[in-house]
Amino acid sequence: MTQSAPADPAQRRFLFLLGSTRREGNSELLARRAAAHLPAGAEQRWLRLADLPVPTFVDQRHDGGHPEPTGNLRTLLDATLDATDLVVVSPLYWYSVTTGVKQYLDHWSGWLRLPEADFKRRMAGRTMWAVTAMADRDPARAEPLAGTLRISADYLAMRWGGVLLGNGSRPGDVLTDTDALRRAETFFTADDAPEAARPAPAWATV
Ligand SMILES: Cc1cc2nc3c(=O)[nH]c(=O)nc-3n(C[C@H](O)[C@H](O)[C@H](O)COP(=O)(O)O)c2cc1C
């Protein structure tokens, strides 16, 4: 059966994956504002990808398969599987996610092939969100980032919560983006996250 997001907010567990290369930058500040308005009772966990370096991803799909994840990779896999809501907090770097976030996503390819992880079936029905800071004032410039995450979520039959965008260059700038701060207040509770764009495929229903 497809796993869906728990209806009871107290059963929701939000994992915030911080993808900036600097601490307390704009994307993190905006995410913390949004997290102050999580559904009542929801748990939150924060992991900074820069504190959890992982091996450079090597495609071993057709070369004996990927080894069992250990160390930081295991921490990230377990945290991902434990979350009902995955929040990718990434500044816009060259119109997409940061290298750290991309590296994390690349490792999903290995996790998808770990029989014991059952990654594809277990991620189905969970929700992915994004929080992004960018120097540009044109939200359309963030479309490649949004598309990368939204379509990746769709690939796993996850729900897509949307992107919370904020403007800023120097750390702290985003705190002057009053529109973004207002959107942050209802970002996680607006409850309009659409179902994944396509029906759950067969592998998610066995
Ligand atoms: C390597 C790099 C690439 C960037 N690329 C973009 C970009 O494509 N578009 C943009 O609007 N801002 C870009 N920026 C600016 C950052 O998105 C902006 O400074 C943001 O506030 C940084 O977020 P942070 O404080 O959470 O790290 C880039 C910054 C860096 C360091």
Automatic annotation (TrEMBL):
Pfam families: FMN_red
Keyword entries, A-Z: Flavoprotein, FMN
Matches recorded under InterPro entries: Flavoprotein-like_sf (IPR029039), FMN_Rdtase-like_dom (IPR005025), ISF_SsuE-like (IPR051796)
Keyword Flavoprotein in annotation: yes
UniProt domain NADPH-dependent FMN reductase-like: residue ranges: 14-137
SUPFAM superfamilies in UniProt: Flavoproteins (SSF52218)
Coiled-coil stretches noted in the UniProt entry, renumbered to this chain: none
Name of protein: Flavodoxin family protein
